[in-house]
Specification:
The protein is of the alpha+beta class. It is about 35% helix and about 20% strand. It is built from 2 helices and 3 strands, in the order H-E-E-E-H. Strands 1-2-3 form a 3-stranded antiparallel β-sheet, with helices on one face. A hairpin with a 6-residue loop joins strand 2 and strand 3 (about 40). The chain starts with a helix and ends in an 18-residue tail after the last helix.
Length: about 80
C-alpha cells in the first residue's frame, strides 16, 4: 500500500476516477478512467467500492512503470 501511495504522489495524483455502469442482470461495473484495463464488478455499491480500490492497488503494483497519460476532466450523462 505504501508503494502504491508513493507512486501516485510521484505523479501528482492520489485520486482515481471511475465510470460506473449497471448491467441488465443488476451487476455494477466500474472502470478506472486513468488506468486502462482496470475494472471490476459487484452487486452492491459498497462491494464495488472495495473491489475497485483493490483493483487500483493491484494494477499499480503490477504496472510499476505506469505513468498517468490522461487527466480526468468531467463526466456527463447525455440522453438522446
Amino acid at each position: 500500500q505504501q508503494k502504491v501511495n508513493k507512486r501516485l504522489k510521484r505523479y501528482g495524483t492520489t485520486a482515481n476516477y471511475t465510470h460506473v455502469e449497471q448491467e441488465f442482470d443488476g451487476y455494477l461495473i466500474s472502470s478506472v478512467i486513468e488506468l486502462p484495463g482496470c475494472h471490476t464488478q459487484a452487486k452492491t455499491n459498497d462491494e464495488l467500492y472495495a473491489r475497485t480500490k483493490e483493483a487500483i492497488e493491484l494494477y499499480l503494483e503490477e504496472n510499476n512503470k505506469f505513468k498517468p497519460g490522461n487527466r480526468f476532466v468531467s463526466l456527463q450523462q447525455i440522453s438522446v
